[in-house]
Specification:
Layout (H helix, E strand, L loop, with lengths): L22 H22 L14 H27 L2 H23 L14 H25 L13 H25 L17 H22 L4 H21 L8 H80 L3 H30 L5 E4 L1 H11 L1 H6 L3 E3 L9 E4 H20 L6 E9 L3 E7 L28 H11 L3 E6 L5 E8 L14 H4 L6
Parallel strand pairs: 2-4
Antiparallel strand pairs: 1-3, 4-5, 5-7, 6-7
Helix pairs in contact: 1-7, 2-3, 2-8, 3-4, 3-5, 4-5, 4-6, 4-7, 6-7, 7-8, 8-9, 10-12, 12-13
Bound molecules: adenosine-5'-diphosphate.
């Protein structure tokens, strides 16, 4: 059974201390440990570690300053994680890093030759060594506390309000512990066993203390190993390995200051200090990139939603324009008939207005149906009849532009199942576009509306004109919402037509007409044909001969 961690589920996948390490990450950690071990063996086995290199004055201040900066930043980053997760374990490990950072201050102050020849505080190297022991005993204790607290009950997480207070309290406590340790080591110097014999040599006691420090670090490593779960656990284990290596290098086989082993131990110490900082920075940057991607994706999604909103309002405006124009024309005509006292003609015009009004209402209903994918209004329809109605509705325009119409009804045609208003909108749009296109140029003006049976199970309707035609670049773009080449156009007609036909499991496409113009064709399933027929092997547009007027 998987144990519950002290992490709320919503934070689980994001935070280093709750994120489980991936395979690559585990391998990298193993590689780092192996590299550390190899470097350790090379240094420790053989004469290398005992070579006396002499004192390099700049080494101690440079090393201590770098460590101080690294550990302070690590502590700040871990405190930041604590403020999100509020788990006591994170507070413990953040305090551990703060502790190591603060312990470096008395270590530098007591080290002879850094601030003063005999050290600014305490009794020279004797105090420095004791500070080192307390520092290297303290950190594993914090790690053990982290390991033991990390699977604590989630209910033990601190309340949001107490986070700042908890950080302040732990910073104050850690600083107080460091001050107390410094006071003990400097003022109580005479009471402590002598470890440092001279600037270079240590007493044999040092070996026992170093052995105990090693054991403490191994204990911390074991606790982490038993309770390992997160990326943070993994890298803390690597840090503890580096800790063991550092102490061993400094103390064994022959402890001597400024020997090769002593310098190498410091470098391992520095590596162990920097390791977690690198990992934290890497993970935080990755997380930041992920968050950025998520924010951008969210913004795109919002824009897409707004676009859909635009498309809906534009399509309503587009579809309503046609009946409205009809109503205005008929109202004008009606008024003229009334002025001339011809009530019968006026009555016909007003009846036409009523019909247009009903059509506008039906159009609004069918637009809602397209966006809701509503199929309640579908009935069995005769395409020949639909074509006849659409041509009748556009007769005025066709006559005005002196367009010759070829539209022979096809008696073989099966019924199709669909929404009458929507399919009529498609035909009206295609015919109106054909009229616009032919009106824009001179030459023969022929509109040919044909229907034929395709494959026995579907019907193909084509609307061909002899207008301006569509360039090969534009053949697909004409179906994009808002694509228009007309000054007063909205570019919604064809996009709506395609939505309607696709909502009927059909297809709508365009091809150049010969010798000029364009042919729009749509395919619909015959009533009773299974909709699987829409995904037939061959594309109908590849098979069909273009309708020629
Ligand atoms: P709109 O008519 O408002 O421009 P459509 O979506 O109906 O919107 O048409 C988009 C564009 O496709 C038109 O602006 C026009 O350039 C082109 N188009 C449509 N039908 C034809 C046609 N029959 N002949 C030539 N071009 C056409």
């Amino acid at each position: 059974m998987v144990k519950r961690t002290a992490v709320a589920p919503e934070e689980q996948p994001f935070i280093l201390s709750s994120l489980p390490p991936g395979r690559a990450q585990r391998r990298l950690a193993l590689a780092v440990v192996l590299a550390l071990l190899v470097a350790f063996l090379i240094t420790e086995v053989g004469p290398l570690s005992t070579i006396q290199l002499g004192r390099i004055d700049a080494f101690v201040p440079a090393y201590a300053t770098a460590m101080l900066v690294n550990d302070s930043i690590t502590a700040v980053l871990l405190f930041a994680q604590f403020s999100i997760l509020r788990s006591p374990a994170l507070l413990a490990i953040s305090s551990g890093y703060l502790f190591t950072a603060l312990m470096l201050i008395p270590w530098m102050l007591t080290f002879p030759g850094v601030f003063a020849p005999g050290g600014l505080l305490g009794a020279g190297l004797q105090s420095t060594t004791w500070i080192y022991i307390l520092w290297h005993a303290g950190f594993p204790v914090f790690v053990i506390a982290y390991g033991l607290l990390k699977d604590a009950d989630p209910a033990r997480r601190l309340r949001q309000g107490s986070v700042g207070a908890a950080i302040l309290a732990s910073v104050a406590t850690t600083a107080a512990v460091v001050c107390a340790a410094t006071f003990l080591v400097t003022a109580g110097d005479a009471l402590l066993p002598r470890i440092s014999l001279d600037p270079v040599r240590f007493s044999t006691l040092w070996l026992y203390y170093a052995g105990c420090l090693d054991l403490l670090s191994v204990l911390a490593l074991t606790v982490l190993w038993i309770r390992r779960r997160s990326v943070l656990d993994l890298w803390l284990m690597v840090v503890m390995c580096a800790y063991v290596i550092e102490i061993t290098l400094i103390a064994f086989p022959v402890p001597a200051r400024f020997s090769f082993g002593w310098y190498a131990g410091r470098i391992f110490g520095f590596l162990s200090g920097s390791l977690l900082l690198f990992v934290l920075l890497y993970e935080i940057t990755t997380l930041y990139a992920g968050v950025l991607r998520a924010v951008l994706a969210q913004r795109r999604e919002r824009e897409a939603r707004l676009m859909t909103g635009d498309a809906v309002s534009a399509s309503i405006a587009h579809e309503i324009k046609q009946p409205l124009t009809g109503m205005i024309t008929n109202a004008d005509a009606g008024l003229r008939w009334l002025e001339r006292s011809m009530p019968d003609e006026a009555k016909a015009a007003f009846e036409q207005i009523v019909a247009d009004g009903h059509r506008a209402a039906a159009v609004i209903g069918s637009i809602r149906a397209i966006f809701k994918k509503d199929s309640r209004n579908r009935t069995s329809l005769d395409i020949n009849q639909l074509i006849g109605e659409a041509l009748a509705l556009t007769r005025g325009d066709l006559q005005r532009h002196r367009i010759q119409v070829q539209a022979e009804p096809n008696a073989q045609l099966p019924q199709v199942r669909g929404d009458r208003i929507q399919l009529q909108q498609v035909l009206l749009n295609l015919i109106t576009n054909a009229i616009d296109s032919m009106a824009a140029k001179d030459g023969p003006r022929v509109l040919c509306v044909r229907s034929e049976v395709h494959d026995g199970a579907s019907v193909i309707v084509s609307v061909a004109d002899t207008g301006t035609g569509i360039g090969s670049q534009e053949l697909e773009r004409v179906f994009n919402p808002m694509f228009t080449t007309k000054s007063g156009g909205m570019g919604m007609g064809l996009s709506i037509c395609r939505s309607i036909i696709e909502a009927h499991d059909g297809r709508l496409w365009v091809a150049p007409n010969k010798p000029e113009g364009a042919v729009f064709q749509f395919m619909l399933l015959a009533d009773g044909a299974a909709s699987a027929g829409a995904s037939r092997r061959e594309r109908p547009e590849d098979l069909l001969v273009s309708s020629r007027p």
